[in-house]
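Consider the following assembly input.
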Amino acid sequence: MQTLGLLFYLKAKMLKSLLLDTRKSYLLRNISTGIVLFALLYISYIFFYNLIFMYVSNLEEIGSLLIDRLVSLGFLAFFFMLIISSFVSALATLFRSTETEYLFSTPLSDLHLLLSKYFDIIIYSSWAILFMALPILYAYAKIRRFGTFEYALTGFFVLLPFILIATAIGTVFSILAVLISKYISIRRLIVFGSVVFASFIFLVIKFSQTNQLTIPFTEDFRALNIFINNFQLNAHPLTPNFWLIQCLRSLVLHEYKEFVLYASALMTSALFVLSFLFMVGEKMYFKTWMISNEQTVVSKKDPGFILTQKCGFFSRTPKTQAQALFNKDVLTLIREPGQWSQILLILALLILYLFNLRMIPQDITDERWITIISIMNYGFCGFILATFAIRFVFPSISLEGKSFWVLSSAPLSTSTLFRVKFMTAFVAFFIIGETIALISSAILKLEGLYQLMTISGIFLMSISLSTLAVGMGAAYPDFSENNPSKIATSPGGILTIVLSLLYIAVMLMLYAVTVYRYTLFLVSGNEFPRIVIISSILLTVVLNAVTIILPLRFGARTLAQKEF
Amino acid sequence: MEDAMVKFEGVSKKYGNQKALSDLSFQVKKGEFFGYLGPNGAGKTTSIKSMIGLIRTDSGSIHVDGIDVANDPISVRSRIGFVPDSPFVYSKLTAREFLRFVGGLYHMEKKDLEKRIDWLSDIFEMHGWLDRRTEEYSHGMKQKVVMSAAFIHRPELIVVDEPTVGLDPPSARLLKDMLKLIQKNGATIFMSSHDLSVVQELCEHMAIIHKGSIVAEGTLEDLRKKAEMEGGNLEDLFLKLTEKTQKAVYLD
């Protein structure tokens, strides 16, 4: 126990030296990052409070129900994101961290080592998600007029066990995955994973179809509600997001018995999952760490390697610097199984989204609902692109890692490096973004201005989100880290997430104002909104010019000043 | 025509309050095999990185083949083949892919590049490993890949930082022969090393850096005169010039 205490003491010391570094440049960096993050948290809160919850709460009869539903849906998404990110963090922290070998050679027990690592996993995997979740939770609490007591109850008895459940599940999965990898080759594991994924998508689609609407007001409300349902699996009474929203609801209604019931469900589930994790860890952590070490002796049978060797396209002799960089980036991406699993996951969610779009009733005629649905679709497309940008483009400079000396000692200009990183991301984003935009427009039967704005908006987002991620990735590189998830959740990554979300929010607002006024023109015979459309286009151009130019300049300047 | 391949003139560099380079001046002639010596923290790596433009100096100037590094680092880099002290290469690429990538960065012609890859893999005995990912390689094998990458574009100046670390004796011998051969063909070699026997064996001209400044420069004979020593090997000279005395070793 003394050694475990020493480990936590060292962690606290390292955190203290990181946060309270009194050297001028570090102090300035920490203070400015703190101010920016706080401001962004506050802006996000204002966005959710004023623009969403206040608006929705004014919808008579269904307002509060919709707010609960939105929060429940948001936390369901956070729950899955937490599981995935803790799974990935656990693989890196438990099995790939360089200190682990040394710690196993000390008299520290396996359980204590796991405990100390699990603490890191919670921090790494949850802080980015908390950054997104806290403004929503705070806006919810504000609109429901929570007092200090309710805040304390929510923080300790609701949010904490919610995070513990998800991160413990992710960590257990990572241990089991390494254990399984001993018996199943990586190729089979990928096939197996794909089958599980396909089954999961099939079940979700099947599940959603039975989950029809519960608010029988009008045909269009039904449509809206189904649309909202597309984002969630279901508010099943045995899911943590259901317990979470029931806790919040009971606090609003001052039904403390209900609160105790659902908070107990969260707490006992957290305790159960933690006990299971520690049991699995005590028995298997060292064993799985050995397995993972043995696997570092790589096999020639890796599917990504075989594929690229057989194809040979990206291994050929490059004619230009740009081609050399592009080939290297593609080969590295294809041969990294960790990257593929994440790409597959996001693509699976995309397919799920498109399948669910098909469930929207085909007979929606009211332009106002078409407008709302098209706005939500536009926002979702932007969100998907932002996710790709943060996860794959932002870490791309950092992932050059300790091999960055090859680039920095070569006659290569920063502009060529940026151009290649940007073009690679842009082409992928363009294909993915426009495919979703075209398919979703076709499914939602969006025509004319709606379709034009969606397609051109996604095109601009593909460019701006790529440059934002490339520029910020260069401005905040971490060459010592080789885990893209950790790079994406570094302070620079978080800043990029927030800036991307802000960019999408402004693009969404410009889109919403334009299509709303256009809809009024179609429905009520108002004057054609020429000025609104022109202003919106001008503002969009300015916003995108700023988002393209500033981060790239910032990144290039920082990278040029950096000493290697 | 400029006679010096590398010229440091009054170069200074500080990290916070700590001086890394202090009014550093020396030059390396074209075609020379130059040894750069100094104890840990003397400023060797800082000067090498400044020469390639990876570090900005506070004052002074560095010229490589007559080109100011601060003004045109890209031209300078195209003339240099750099071998860092730690051989980090892209672990997911094979040696062949890595060498093609480096050739692409240096604008090499396809035919010439393929010929060079074949020649280097032959010299460094990498044939069986050329199409395997570098993550499978030993430290020594990675070092060979990094050396090949440094030589592939026929640089006029080879900058080598601690070249023999981690190499087995046959590989170290091979490297020394390779460096001699490349120098014979007209290239300049700038070698920083802790291995004094290697420097003594290979370098015709050397400089000892201590606390960011050159304390002695010239041939082995020049250094002996400077240290007022008759005979003695480079290690004795080095210790005398850098004021290092051997600490007594004792058991508790």
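Residues 224 and 232 of chain B are 8 Å apart (CA to CA). Ask yourself how this observation constrains the way the partners meet.
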